[in-house]
Amino acid sequence: MNMETRLDAPVNQKMYDELGERWYSANDDPVALLRAESRKRNKWIAEEVRNAFAERQVRLLDVGCGAGFLSNELAREGLLVTGLDASESSLGIARMHGDPDRVAYQRGDAYNLPHEDESFEIICAMDLLEHISDPGQVINEIARVLKPHGLFFFHAFNRNLLSYLVIIKGVEWFVRNTPRNMHVLRLFIKPSELREMCGRSGLTLKVLRGFGPKAGHPAFWHMLLTGIVREDFEFEFTKSTLMGYIGFAVKERVDR
Questions:
Q1: pLDDT 10s per residue in the chain (256 long)?
Q2: Sign (positive/negative) of CA torsion 207, 213, 216, 217?
Q3: Is the distance from CB of 101 to CB of 73 less than 8 angstroms?
Q4: Alpha helices per DSSP H over 54-180
Q5: CA–CA separation, 122 vs 104, rounded Å?
Q6: What is the DSSP secondary structure assignment for residue 168, as one 8-state letter?
Q7: Domain spans of the chain, in order of start
Q8: Can you say whether the dihedral through the CA atoms of 154, 180, 112, 56 is positive or negative?
Q9: What stretches of the chain adopt beta strand conformation (E)?
């Protein structure tokens, strides 16, 4: 298959329906990279939420929550969490690993969120925007249900040749059981594009940080040699947003 065909191919969403308990247990699968990402970024999101809202009890919507890596941890931090995803099988695993008294899971469409206007102080979209064809529309929906002065957290991948070689091909080459088209380059989002999408929806980008694997860690080299992502694999914040990046925007304009 040539590169042009690969770039035009749809994202492989079916893989998430088939993971089952491997969401939480597999090390021979790229889902282990998602767990490693979550271990780093969940703590950062929790800290930013505490800084913004102190001891206030706030509601959080996790759009594209998958098996609940973020939702379950932030629920344990005391937030009132709703996790939304299109995959019922993934939601089933999330419920098994979560506390039903602290987090509610629902099946839903990110393009048409099943919530009233201004329902949540915090909305997260982790590893979602690069899997959909119209991220601007989803961000507009997120802005609709976000309360004034609320926070929108995101993680996405930059669109360039280096991202294609490292994030797409590198994972296919060096992580076992990586399916074709887990990511496609045409759906990656440049930071300037994300800033513009947020601005059109009344959101002001406040923080943007590079985010990627800790290349000097022994677990990184172990992955390259074996295809196995150990549980001590680490991600870190970086100065460069050339590949992966993370951040948040604030809903400052009330009338959209």
A1: 333 334 456 777 778 888 999 999 999 999 999 999 999 999 999 999 999 998 788 999 999 999 999 999 999 999 999 999 999 999 999 999 999 888 999 999 999 999 999 999 999 999 999 999 999 999 999 999 999 999 999 999 999 999 999 999 999 999 999 998 899 999 999 999 999 999 999 999 999 999 999 999 999 999 999 999 999 999 999 999 999 999 999 998 555 4
A2: positive
A3: no
A4: 69-76, 88-97, 135-145, 161-163, 171-174
A5: 15
A6: I
A7: 3-251
A8: negative
A9: 59-63, 80-85, 103-107, 120-126, 146-157, 203-213, 235-238, 244-251
Question: In the numeric block, which tokens belong to residue 198?
Answer: 């947020």
Whether residue 12 contacts residue 179, with contact meaning beta carbons closer than 8 Å, is answered with yes
Cβ atoms of residues 110 and 131 within 8 Å: no
Helices (H), strands (E): how many in the chain? 11, 8
CA distances from 181 to 55, 224, 232 (A): 42, 20, 26
Structure-token pair, residue 169: 């091909």
Order of all β-strands in the sheet with 244-251: 103-107, 80-85, 59-63, 120-126, 146-157, 244-251, 203-213, 235-238
Tell me if the domain spanning 3-251 has CATH number 1.10.10.10. Answer: no
Positive or negative, the CA dihedral 39, 41, 47, 53 is negative
